[in-house]
Amino acid sequence: MATTPTPTTAKAAAPQPRSVLRDPAFLRLWAGTTASGLATWALPFVLGLAVLHRDLGAAGLGLVLAARTLGFLAAVAVGGVLADRHSRRAVVLWSALAAAVAAPLLAAGLGRSLVLMTAAAALAGAGQGACRPAFQALTAESVEPGRRQQANAAMTMSVRGSTLAGPALTALLAAFLDVGALLLGIGLLWLVAALAPAKGTVAATPVTAATADLPVPAAESAPRAGFRTEFLEGMREARRHPWFLAGLAALAAVITLGYSATSVALPLISRDRYGTEWVLAAAMTAFTVGALGGALVISRWRPRSAGRAALAGLAAYGLAPLSLMLPVHPVVVVAAYAVAGIGIELFNVPWFTATQREVAPDKLARVSSLDFLVSYGLAPVGLALIAPAIEAFGVTAVLGACAGACFLVPAAAALVPTARHFGRTAAPAAR
Q1: Alpha helices of 110-147 — where are they, by DSSP H?
Q2: Per-residue pLDDT tens for 43-98?
Q3: Fewer Cβ close by (within 10 Å): the C or N end of the chain?
């Protein structure tokens, strides 16, 4: 009986480019992600310029930004279900187009209708939220498993670069264009995000020790379950992976307590202790630069215990609130933020890679949407709670508690047996 010999399979993989950065399909996906990141980070800055130009009041700015956040949170779960139910490429297309349509609506409402601007901001947030899990799943469809860590590192470098380039580029263009034109430019960026990515061509993850006990998918002709049922299926898939739940709990603690505490305390300490805004600006820049460096390192580094190394990186964020507790030289604060930035990407990249590797391919977008719900959803909660806590207990006590949580919760997560490798077995070596 004729069979396909194993050497043929290996030979078929040989023509693939050695670096993911030379893969045209990935570069198109990276371009779309970068455009969406620039648009996302530029919008609050442009709306801030509208306040300066008196086209929008401070209360209106808060309402518009809140509408965008609510739109994002409402759509990210929907986007996860849709991206598992339909083509991930199509979900990216239509969600990014929705965000692109929102930009001229924002421009039309500027100085005329706060109601229109609020509705448009909600639409923009919904487009952004729906495309996040689809982009994550499309990465797995576009890149072979052995190159996904490098691909995820390139993606996160795009995100971090956008945090630097988005506001800076907007400030430069603001010298020549008015706010309405800048909003239209954001719409063009979303149009690039919609049209640039190609359809994924990588086959579904083969059955391994991590996926051998997955149920066989139903036939395509079977009737679809309802939205709620499919979303709950994604949550059940997440519960199948103890390392994912442990890592998500650690991430929630760092975001809700660590990130929120430093966001509130850093401006106060920069002003009151050091008497200058330089510490605030330098620390935030150092965090972003550190994150870029961390993504560069993890694109090549393969630690033996990848999960525990990632959680140690996440715990490094505790250095940021710790440095704000103590009367140290401002350079120490800046250095602590740089290390925190490095650590956060030493966690993010292996985390995304493990999720793409371990989660059932037909549920990947839904599990990713749960990740984004926690990442984006808990930050406003933490920000709302930290300020009253500082008033009640003092900034030093709150920072100390938050630093302790940043160190202890990831350490506890690392004790979960499957957390060592972010999976049941060690990840395969990159080719």
Answers
A1: 114-142
A2: 888 888 888 888 888 788 888 888 998 999 889 988 989 888 888 999 999 999 99
A3: N
Residues 6+ apart with CB under 8 A from 393: none
Asked if 44 and 165 count as a contact pair (C-beta separation under 8 A), the reply is: no
Helix ranges restricted to H, 240-363:
242-253, 260-272, 278-298, 306-315, 319-325, 330-358
Report the residue count for the chain.
Answer: 431
Give me the amino acid identity at 274. Y
**Structure-token match 């919008």, residue found:** 43
CA–CA distance, 87 with 362 (Å, rounded to integer): 11
Q: Mean per-residue pLDDT for 358-364?
A: 91
DSSP 4: -
| pLDDT at residue 163 in the model | 78
Provide the residue type at 41 as one letter.
W
Report CA-CA distances (Å) from 412 to 151, 245, 351: 29, 12, 17
Q: In this structure, what token pair is assigned to residue 394?
A: 């003092």
Q: Could you tell me the two tokens for 164?
A: 């630097």
| Radius of gyration from C-alpha coordinates of the chain | 22
Please report which residue ranges of 178-241 form alpha helices under DSSP H: 179-195, 227-239
Cα dihedral value 255, 257, 263, 265, nearest 10: -170
Task: Identify the burial level of 379 via C-beta atoms within 10 angstroms of its C-beta, where 0-12 means exposed, 13-18 middle and 19 or more buried.
Answer: middle
Q: For the whole prediction, is pTM greater than 0.85?
A: no
Contact 99, 157 (CB under 8 A): no
